Amino acid sequence: MRRKPTIQDVANLARVSKSTVSKFLNDVPYVSRETRKKIEQAIQTLDFRPNTFARGLVNHTSGLIGLVISGVDVLVNVELIKAIELEAGKHGYHVVLVSTNDDYSLEKEIPQILSEKFHYLDGVILANAREGMDLELLRETFEHVVMVHRYIPNDVVDFVTIDGYIGGKLAAEYLIGLGHKKLGMIAGPAVIYQSRDRLEGFKDTLKEYGLLEDSVIIESGYSVEEGFQAAEMIMFDYKDVTAIFASSDMIALGVLDAARLFRWKIPEDLSVIGFDNMAFSRLARVPLTTVDGRIKEMGQMAVRKLMERIKRERKEREQAFLRPSLIVRESCREFT
To answer: What sequence ranges are listed for the domain HTH cro/C1-type (predicted)?
Structure first.
């Protein structure tokens, strides 16, 4: 097996010092044009590929950022990962992916795990933040941290998220405008602030219209299976409910699955609204009306904010709530 060429091999062939090659690779000035040409020719002849991690040691960077997600099987994370990887690539960075598999006990240990095993990262994007996570411990190791999608109210870390409160209001107002008076909501876990925001927006709107007391609210996880179970509970225990707001498209998919099994017609028997506007929502058996969570845009903005921190272009803390919009498809109808 052929040995990989080293910086020393390049230096020997170009007849320059190893330190001169290192300066060339790291774009340090004062390397003459003639010397640069000799080094470039040596690199091409040897097919030398510099170790980007080693180069980063000179610049005190690794060229790597961490992305912590709740699980690779969560479709919203799939879209978020893609957006973050593409945007990071534009800035010359690669992404190290860490998944907690939505294990709450593991998520609480994430700051310590990252500090011990991934301390070389230039920064971290957290997409799995929930109440109880020790952000201060994380900041002790990583100067640059940005939360995306899920967030924790704080005074030290940037975040980019959707305005879940406005999203909850949009869903409630739309269903009420269609004439629904007996509404159900399948809310996400209360330890996730986004879940709380969506619930509070929905509840406050129902209260404004005097419909809160007649509504049904069930807390659920964000999986399809949990959405199925919650829908089953609502529709069999509260038969007068005519519309359900699901706190995510994954939950809504579970509602649609339950409707198929129990032969509830969507939207004739039950109107359904999701949240996130995942790619599959428009391809569902009944195209899903949903609140657009602007996932791609959130991922891109999170990377840009992290790059501003890494490159020392910004010192002040920035926390952004993006305004959602309602995407109307075919899963809701007027109730008369």
So the answer is: 6-53
As given in the structure block, the two tokens for residue 169 are 């209001």
Q: Which amino acid is at 98?
A: V
Q: Say how far apart CA 301 and CA 158 lie, in whole Å.
A: 11
Both 174 and 110 in one domain: the answer is: no
**CB neighbours of residue 267 within 10 Å:** 21
Rama region for 319: left / alpha / beta (φ>0; ψ in -120 to 50; rest): beta
How far CA 209 is from CA of 39, 139, 248, in Å, comes to 74, 44, 24
In sequence order, which residues have a C-beta less than 8 Å from that of residue 223 and are 6 or more positions away? 250, 251, 254
Strands 64-69 and 145-148 come out as unpaired
* Residue 313: exposure state from Cβ atoms within 10 A (0-12, 13-18, ≥19): exposed
The residue that leads in pLDDT, 285 or 200, is 200
Does 171 share its domain with 262?
Answer: yes
In terms of phi and psi (left: phi > 0; alpha: psi -120 to 50; beta: otherwise), the region of 179 is left
Q: Please calculate the CA angle 225-230-236 and round it to the nearest 5 degrees.
A: 125
Helical residues (DSSP H) of the chain, grouped into ranges:
7-14, 18-25, 33-46, 52-59, 75-90, 104-117, 135-141, 164-177, 193-208, 224-237, 249-262, 295-310
Q: Is residue 327, in this structure, part of any structural domain at all?
A: no
Is 55 found in the same domain as 110? no
Strands of the sheet containing 64-69, edge to edge, are: 94-99, 64-69, 123-126, 145-148, 158-162, 319-322
Half-sphere exposure of 154 (CA within 13 A, CB side): 22
Instruction: Judge contact between 298 and 280, C-beta under 8 A.
Output: no
**Statement to judge: residues 77 and 176 lie in one domain:** no
Average of per-residue pLDDT across 39-62: 72
pLDDT in tens, 107-126: 777 877 887 788 788 999 99
Range(s) of the domain holding residue 235:
164-294
